[in-house]
């Protein structure tokens, strides 16, 4: 084994440079993997946001919770939460309109 290492040292006099290169290559592969994971996460978040917007539109036009859950595949609890938020906003808008009208 020792002889093999000695031969490698003779064959590859730039061992340190090779190690630096391999370390850089490893670092670049890790960065690429991290970037890909971040892109995937961003896509998933974007899809979720779009699905929530669709559910909000459906709620505003009066679609039922069961239909919204079926179409958007959001959890029922999330759709109920969205409905409550929309109802709260509608009440606030109505209150502000009454203030402006008076």
Describe this protein with a few key phrases.
Serine-tRNA synthetase type1 N-terminal domain-containing protein, 4 helices, 102 residues, 88% helix
Provide an overview of this structure.
This protein has 102 residues and is mainly alpha-helical. It has one domain (2-101). The chain contains four helices and no strands. It has helices spanning 2-11, 15-60, 65-72, 76-101. Helix 2 (15-60) runs antiparallel to helix 3 and helix 2 packs across helix 4 (76-101).
Question: Briefly, what is this?
Answer:
With 102 residues, the chain is an all-alpha fold. Helices cover 88% and strands 0% of the residues. It has one domain (2-101).
| SSE pattern, N- to C-terminal | HHHH
Residue windows where pLDDT falls under 50 for at least 5 positions: none
User: SS-based structural class?
Assistant: mainly alpha
Could you estimate the helical fraction of the residues in percent?
Answer: over 70%
- Structural Rg: 29 Å
Main β-sheet description? none
> How many domains, as an integer?
1
Distance between the termini: 94 Å
Characterize the quaternary organization of these chains.
Answer: single chain
How many separate helices?
Answer: 4
Mean pLDDT: 88
User: What is the molecular shape?
Assistant: rod-shaped
* Strand proportion: under 5%
Q: What's the β-strand tally? A: 0
Protein name: Serine-tRNA synthetase type1 N-terminal domain-containing protein
Organism: Clostridium kluyveri (strain ATCC 8527 / DSM 555 / NBRC 12016 / NCIMB 10680 / K1)
